[in-house]
User: Fold these one by one.
Assistant:
Number 1:
Amino acid sequence: MTLAPLTVSDTAPAAGAAPLFGANLSASLIEDLAARGWAHARGALEPDLARALRAEALAMAADGALAEARIGRGEAERRDRAVRRTAIAWMDGRTPAQRAFLDGCEAMRTAINRALFAGLFEFEAHYAVYPPGGFYARHLDAFAPPPVAAGPNAVMGRTAARSRVVSMVVYLNEGWTPDDGGELAVWEHFTRAPDGRADLRALDGVPPAGVIAPEMGSVVLMLSEAIPHEVRPAAATRCAIAGWWRVNASIGGVVDPAR
């Protein structure tokens, strides 16, 4: 069974729900996000919650409840194992671990909005389990670039006609070693073709700004439209949660549905 995506705006967080991270760590992550477009903290997620989420992801994989991930959107959506090899299941908040995680992400949404006036409206997330040999080629998380004429301020707020604005990855891998591979590589800059599309092939041979091991409880934040990244091939089963805070790209007063 593949779960439909749930967005945090669909359900109110539980009263008194704990944030994912302490106030100092949250502030540090947001500061780095604003300064360089991405942020990383090791062991950021509370260990018991991280273990519960890991157990759930592995159980779903064992039960065949994950679906092969696709790339693209709408009519262009497709499976392409040359670009992405992983299996996913959308989080729907039905378990205590998922609810605690999603409630914490709602608290983080509020913190990012207060600090950066980002206009983030909702959050969606899925488990991602990479088999040995799994990877995800270099890409941006946003489906479309902001208008060239909009300038750099289009990365935040509602200036651009897009949805995903801030990405988050949380890693759920116990005892991960360098031999297991599966690192996340991130770049801070890229060029655009004349049509405005990102030219990510131009980054071939360019050293990444960061290479991050997918260690248990570590978290990465990225500006979805600004930070190219890739998942290098894993030599062991690699578990993570990938999530996105979105703006409300509404038309005619109708709330834009989850993508």
Number 2:
Amino acid sequence: MPIEIDKDSCLYCEACVAACPTGAIRVRRGEDGDVINCLVCGACVKACPNDALELEDLEREIDGETVTVKRIAWRPEDCDKEDPPVCGQHCPQEILRIEDEYPELQGYCVMCLRCMEACPIGAIGVKGVTEPESEPPEHPEGKGVYVHPERCVGCAICALVCPNDAIELVSTDEEFFRAEENEWSPVYVDPETLEVEQGRKVARIDEDKCAGCATCVQACPWGAITAPQEVSPQPREIENEVDEDACIGCGVCAEVCPGNLIEVDGVAKVPEKCPGCKLCERACPVDAIKIRLSYERLGTIK
């Protein structure tokens, strides 16, 4: 029973990739982009010539119940650590590989479930135990490019990348679809000043100005925009950094994070990867947070 990723809902933000201690989740780039993960199938265990891998039973508490799951255990003292590894040649996901840092063998799932905790939209579950919470937004019939207000966090990135100035932010009574779980304090970004304002505003597309290019669909960090045709998220790179000397531990960043991904313990702890909406960076009163967001074709978002 491996982890299960709802690929239709996945934001490809790589928060799960960064959270996984053994590199058991990867995102493939390019036109055939996909998210892959260890299936805990045991093929690597059977292939290992030194019995350095083992398929173990593990008791975990999931959704308040104790269940027995399977995980892969690695004994580094018995591993040849050859590159490429023999086990990797038999992995159906082609995910096992040798890296420089410990654990040198990467790509096997230890069922720590950190990926489930890291996913900002609940798109990860455990097969046969708990289904992913997420459901992809359904595009409304007869609509062109459309913003789902319950999914929009008001980050205004869509407005910044729109070539026709067809997007504005408007007030709404629609709650963010993860508001209850995340206890989010609604804010929005003024596209003109890039300042964070209190209140609930979401993007709205002017159908008369919209050319249907779907650039906003590709750029939306939270997957809040859909088009009549299938549009894949544009590959993006995210680098998050906190200046701990500058941080005053006020917690504003945690309050405005729609994914409940930031912890404050003296200083802010921002995850290595996230959707990249930049609300925390823009809201920080001392400029201690830097979210570097760049897209393959759109470039860096200021």
Number 3:
Amino acid sequence: MGNEDHSHFSGGLTLTENDHGSEQSALSESTGNEQSTVKLRVFRYKNLPKDDTSAPSTSFDTFQVPISNGTTLLDALIYVKEKLDPTLTFRYSCRMGICGSCGVNANGKEKLACKTQVKDLGENIEVRPLNNLSLIRDLTVDFKPFIEKNVKVKPYLVRNDVDVDGGFNREFRQTPDELNQYLMFANCLMCGLCYSACPTNATDELYLGPQALARAYRYIADSRDGGQLERIEIVDQEHAAWSCHFAGSCSDVCPKGVDPAFAIQQLKALALRKQGLLKRKKPSPLVERPRESVNPV
């Protein structure tokens, strides 16, 4: 992805280039035992105060980063922040591919920084923020619209026959085969990589996005849920399932192997049958025995 594509996430802001390679090279040589170095070209952005009417500018800073076998992209970014430029801003937490916080665009493709080996990216690496979300600073984007769209599809079990808030003390019955109907979609980290890669999200800000639609299917496919028709009404409309062009970009970038593109096609099929199959579907019953209360020692 070249500089001409940058307006996709920055609104066409002014772009400048800052190369700090000589300073960083000298510093990396002093560390001694590194096997090699890579050139990390990192997108920079700093929002202006509200009373500043000038257009905020964007830039790229280039760093020479020492690496060895096993160095991840997140390790490289942390190295820059701790040893070269403490102002670099990005999100991360678990470093284990579980929290989904460290999503970035690396060499033109969405990736979790903590799961990406630097040596797999080559000697020259360009790191940008995720697409289709507003910039906050550097590699950090605003996830508020993403979270709001997830909430719209009711990402929880809906039951009208049981008071789940009134001292609930037992599980709903579910077989292993019923679990397998939605298990893959339950692995979603909400990292936003699919949202960034989706071409429909790039052109339609109101589109729910692959994550929210896949989350809707996850609960519709859950045998314990009774809110299928409610969710189908949400996804069977403009800016939802029917806006998907089945590009498959969302499934291609998912770090957990979730297939949102498949889920969206399933939603389309269910929407056409919502007065038939879904109307007859009944949620699974409770197990017969309540859970035994566990007293802390």
Number 4:
Amino acid sequence: MQIHVVRAGQTLLSISYNFNKIFSISSGLDGILIPNLHKALYVTTSYLIMTFYDLKEKHGKLKKLDGGALFKTAPYNIFGSDTHRYKFNPCLTEDTIQSFEKSYSFILPADYKYFLTQIGNGGSGPAYGLFPLADWDFELDINDHNFLSTDFPHLDKWNPVQDFDTEDEDYTETDDFKKWEENYFSNRHVTGSLRICHYGCAIYYLLVVTGKNAGQIWVDDRANDCGIYPAISKSTGRRLTFLEWYNEWLTDSLKHFA
């Protein structure tokens, strides 16, 4: 497994590890000094792996509880689970992921990359499940090869006000509204992100991969006039990484059977 630490498009560090053993660290900068690097990385990677073990255990419990266990004779109770049925797609190889990253000139968040290589390339997950990596642009018409390497444009919730007379039955036919709508749904508002999950009603979960909020889960709810906003933890009130978002789905789903 490899983690790349990148700043301003330049790889500062390339870290190779196998479970809890770090066996290769290379720097992209001459003379870089990082005190206690091995210790810090050992703690970080060990935490990541231990958390994924916990995640897999929770997933196994939920799979047994929802839908009637082995023979699935009972109805699925968790929203969307009758679609993915707690099944994962085959994992991706390191080479496949590196080829994808190189093709679009960006780096995937470490926790999501680990998920793809060790758990599954999409499948079981929140709502109707996770998209495979290849479907990152699901229902998007993207022709810009720099889309994923361009910074995600938002720091906080974004939802511009509609300044139209909504009581006018024909307001959606005006030129001003059509221009506003074209801008509102432009793909430039979601650059630097992957679509990883469909919640339904044209609501999508995004994984930000480039920019100041890289690693966070955001929600594209423009289809319901709610804009684009960060996913927030119900328990902590903080923004969620991919791993935290997935783990919170498991935790909340298990509470249904408590």
